[in-house]
Amino acid sequence: MKIELERARAQFEYEREHHARILAAAPGEDRALAFSEAYDGLYAGMRAKIFLDQETEPKRKAVQKFKLLKRYLTSSSHVAECGPGNFHLAKVVAPHVESLALVDVVNGNPKARLPKNCKFYESDGVHLPTKLDDLDLVWSAHVIEHIHPEEVYDHLVDVRRALANGGNYVIFTPNRYSGPHDISRRFSRTAEGLHLKEYTVRELRRALKLTGYSQIRSYAGGKGVYVRVPGWLPVLAELKLSLCPRFSRRFFANLLPIKALLGIIIVGKK
Q1: What is the per-residue burial (b if ≥16 Cβ within 10 Å, else e) of 146-177?
Q2: Terminal alpha carbon distance of the chain
Q3: Residue 107: what pLDDT?
Q4: What is the predicted pLDDT for the residue at 34?
Q5: Which of 64, 163, 174, 215 has the maximal Cβ count within 10 Å?
Q6: Are 129 and 121 within 8 A, CB to CB?
Q7: Global pTM value
Q8: Could you tell me the pLDDT band of residue 99, with boundaries at 50, 70 and 90?
Q9: Domains of the chain
């Protein structure tokens, strides 16, 4: 237990330092470099057992997320994943599609054996490679919160650019009201690690609308069970939580069924 706490503290201090560095970095090459250095060091620290390995039951969770993604897939689909991590979800999806592009700032598992229809692309963490276009589906799982807040709109615009007409962008991200959800959770009431900003449903629905997505769907649930809900329902729950004292919001936000409603699962259609 003591060793785990020491690793958690070391990771928190590391991520907090790079959180500040990324936010302060100028857009473009400086910011992209700050991102890649932060994640290179994080993955190295995890491999060296200096930091915690925060992936718990990744294969099971990948299968669960696929139960939503498969609603938007066919065997001829050309798709992309932003921030594939160790490729657990990619390996589940790949047998069901024509091609799968994997886009990230660094390759978190360079020795991974990927299916033949998968290709890894290094990026700045915001944009997809310009050669990727006419995609039927793009998704990101716990990625939006890692993007610089100034560039989230750029990211949404660029994903929309890469989608075919009628294509969809599926976003899984934790809700700020039940957070923080990064390593800060052990030490702080706000995200100070590599979650540069955690969002609400209301914020992301507004961002998707402003960046030109024609239809926005919200889902509630998790663990492989996803139910489409009216967009106003999670927004209303957030409004009620905002009226609660700050110290009690996380408690109420983590109670079922509120937690199932507020875990952000949003689909934007081009």
Answers
A1: bbbeebbebbbbbbbebbeeebbbbbbbbbbb
A2: 48
A3: 82
A4: 93
A5: 163
A6: yes
A7: 0.94
A8: very high
A9: 55-269 (3.40.50.150)
